[in-house]
Amino acid sequence: MTKIYIDGDACPVKDEVFKVAGRYGLAVTVVGNAWLRLPQDPMITMIVVPEGPDAADDRIAELIEPGDICITNDIPLGSRCLIKRALVLRPNGKPMTENSIGDALATRDLMNTLREIGTMTGGPPPFAKADRSRFLSALDTMVHQAKRVVP
Questions:
Q1: Mean pLDDT taken over the chain
Q2: In order of start, what are the domains of the chain with their CATH numbers?
Q3: Are 58 and 41 in contact (CB under 8 A)?
Q4: What pLDDT, on a 0 to 100 scale, did the predictor assign at position 18?
Q5: What is the CA 50 to chain-centroid distance, rounded?
Q6: Which spans of this chain does the record mark as coiled coil?
Q7: Angle of helix 75-83 relative to helix 55-63, nearest 10 degrees?
Q8: Quick check: 16 and 22 in contact, CB under 8 A?
Q9: Is the pLDDT of residue 120 over 70?
Q10: How many C-beta atoms lie closer than 10 Å to residue 120's C-beta?
């Protein structure tokens, strides 16, 4: 059965995930390096990992299986999940796919380089109400896709 994993430390759509998962009876695991207040629901669990770079990502990549869904903005984690035949959705509602992940990794590396040399100093645009709406719709669609991967 499909499970949803949330890269939880800075995820702005946890409540939306809980809502959609509840509608479909899906288990949700939030992974982060600090305890978060979560709804009291037997289908929602929290895994706290030690602090450190990529500790949460490593745990999600270890647990995720084909047909599961990962909610993350982390492109390398998204790539690792796609390799395991999981589905990946960004909090802004844009999916990461096998077709888009290569470009996303290259763009990420380019942006890191530009920031390092001081050419670019900004980050991503702020999270907007339209992103939340797009996310809800995309997650609903992705749940149906996941059911086709793992009946």
A1: 87
A2: 3-149 (3.40.50)
A3: no
A4: 97
A5: 19
A6: none
A7: 20
A8: no
A9: no
A10: 13
Q: Which of 102, 91, 94, 67 is nearest to 81 (CA)?
A: 67
Distances (CA, A) of 122 to 53, 90, 118, 125: 22, 19, 10, 9
Identify any residues that bridge with 122 across adjacent strands, giving them in sequence order: none
* Residue spans of beta strands (DSSP E) within the chain: 3-7, 27-32, 44-48, 69-71, 87-89, 95-96
Residue 73, both tokens: 């903005």
Angle, helices 129-149 vs 14-24, to 10°: value is: 40
Tell me: pLDDT of 38 over 90.
yes
Torsion angle of C-alpha atoms 142, 148, 150, 151, degrees rounded to 10 = 120
Written as one letter, the residue type at 46 is M
Q: What is the pLDDT of residues 2-30, one digit of tens each?
A: 999 999 978 999 999 999 999 999 999 99
Count CB-CB contacts under 10 A for residue 86. Answer: 25
- Work out the angle at residue 96's Cα, subtended by the Cα atoms of residues 37 and 100, and round it to the nearest 5 degrees: 155
Residue 21, φ and ψ in degrees, nearest 5? -60, -40
